[in-house]
Amino acid sequence: MFAWLPTRPKLPALIHQAFSADLLAAYRLEGDDGAWLVAAKSGLVRVANDGAKTPLCTWDEVERAAWDGQERKFTINRINASPTQCVLAEPANKGEREQLDQLARTLRQQVERAIVVRRDNVSLGDGALATITIRRRSDDSLYCLSLIEADAALNQEQVAALKQAETQTKLSVGLTTLED
């Protein structure tokens, strides 16, 4: 007896050609323009049916990401940028459903991998708050990012407190500081 295994839908050649070894997962975007959402090692990219690539974000630029399975919609919240929403096409069969699920898993894994190695929330006084994070780039290098919530520009004492907190956060993961 022969067992027939279901075949996975093939990605368009232009996706393979454009990304080769950098390709992690891809799925069709909703609409009739034939565009695809591609998860590459470097980040998230929209690929038009003519092969034109529009980078949406690198993984370490993502502050938060959410997947709405009912709407088939990814919402990407980037650091200091407006959210990007990507609505994916309705899967036509089981193979496409698996492809969609693979993209969702890949997006989650890449965002989690890059988003935060460490996060410290620090009060800088006078109501100013800093969130200091150590993030990972696609080349695995680490860097420090500080997001400040304040009603006004930081004063000298607050800047000094921020620098001290950044130094402590960097040292906690083995990053060098300017004082080294």
Automatic annotation (TrEMBL):
Name assigned to this protein: Uncharacterized protein
